[in-house]
């Protein structure tokens, strides 16, 4: 692995470490998302704290954190292994941000950005799945779990047998499921809150 490739991976982690939720809430004079609602610095909790505009900005910024490093890697024509590592580094940066005490969000939006970077159709298929499940069940966590679980399948169907990308995406999915373990527990009990309810600590 070259020095440039290593720097790309490190830079992806640092970009991922920038917490959009915390910054957006601070700029909009909203409560710190880590101290209210679910305590998670992500778009769903920002929706609860500050409404649709703040949540939309957070969602878009978190997606960009995953998308931009991967696009840069694509432009530099790195190998699929390096591309997979760059995407994974951005995802891990969001979960364990060096700038915020290694306590970050659950990674759904950043992972989606990474998938768009891998291939636009993979990102579109995953986002479409999230929207479809959200429309039917109106549960953010369930939408995220189903969409990301299908992401490795979408990579196989759209990109082909790319082991680095499939493995990277599968590991991100497993980590994301682990981060959503409390949500999964509530889903199994039928207690998971629906999108838009202020007292529903889904993310």
Report on the structure:
There is one protein chain. With 203 residues, the protein is mainly alpha-helical. It has one domain (3-189). Helix content is 71%, strand content 0%. The chain is built from 10 helices and no strands. α1 (3-16) runs antiparallel to α4 (52-75) and α6 (108-118) runs antiparallel to α7. The longest helix is centred in the N-terminal third of the chain and has 24 residues, at 52-75. It is globular.
Structural features:
about 70% helix, mainly alpha, about 200 residues, disordered C terminus, single chain
Radius of gyration: 16 Å
Care to count the β-strands?
0
Which oligomeric form is depicted? Answer: single chain
Overall, the morphology is globular
Please identify the structural class as seen in this structure: mainly alpha
Provide the β-strand percentage band: under 5%
Order of helices and strands: HHHHHHHHHH
Question: Termini, distance in Å?
Answer: 37 Å
What is the arithmetic mean of pLDDT? 92
Q: Kindly give the count of domains.
A: 1
Largest sheet: none
Separate helix tally: 10
Helix content: over 70%
| Uncertain runs | 198-203
Which helices and strands appear, and what pairs or packs with what?
Layout: H1 3-16, H2 20-27, H3 43-50, H4 52-75, H5 80-95, H6 108-118, H7 120-137, H8 140-158, H9 163-179, H10 181-189
Quick summary:
The protein has helices at residues 3-16, 20-27, 43-50, 52-75, 80-95, 108-118, 120-137, 140-158, 163-179, 181-189. The chain is an all-alpha fold and 203 residues long.
């Amino acid at each position: 692995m070259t020095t440039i490739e290593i720097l790309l991976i490190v830079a992806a982690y640092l970009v991922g470490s920038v917490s959009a939720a915390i910054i957006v809430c601070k700029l909009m004079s909203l409560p710190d998302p880590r101290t209210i609602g679910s305590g998670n610095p992500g778009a769903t909790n920002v929706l609860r704290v500050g409404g649709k505009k703040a949540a939309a900005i957070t969602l878009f910024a978190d997606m960009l954190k995953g998308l931009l490093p991967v696009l840069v890697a694509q432009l530099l024509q790195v190998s699929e292994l390096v591309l997979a590592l760059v995407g994974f580094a951005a995802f891990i940066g969001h979960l364990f941000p060096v700038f915020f005490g290694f306590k970050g969000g659950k990674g759904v939006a950043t992972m989606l950005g990474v998938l768009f970077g891998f291939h636009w159709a993979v990102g579109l298929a995953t986002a479409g799945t999230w929207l479809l499940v959200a429309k039917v069940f109106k549960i953010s966590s369930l939408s995220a779990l189903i969409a990301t679980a299908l992401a490795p399948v979408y990579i196989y169907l759209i990109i082909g047998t790319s082991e680095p990308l499939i493995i990277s995406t599968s590991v991100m999915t497993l980590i994301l499921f682990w981060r959503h373990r409390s949500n999964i527990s509530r889903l199994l009990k039928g207690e998971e809150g629906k999108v838009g309810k202020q007292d529903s600590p889904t993310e």
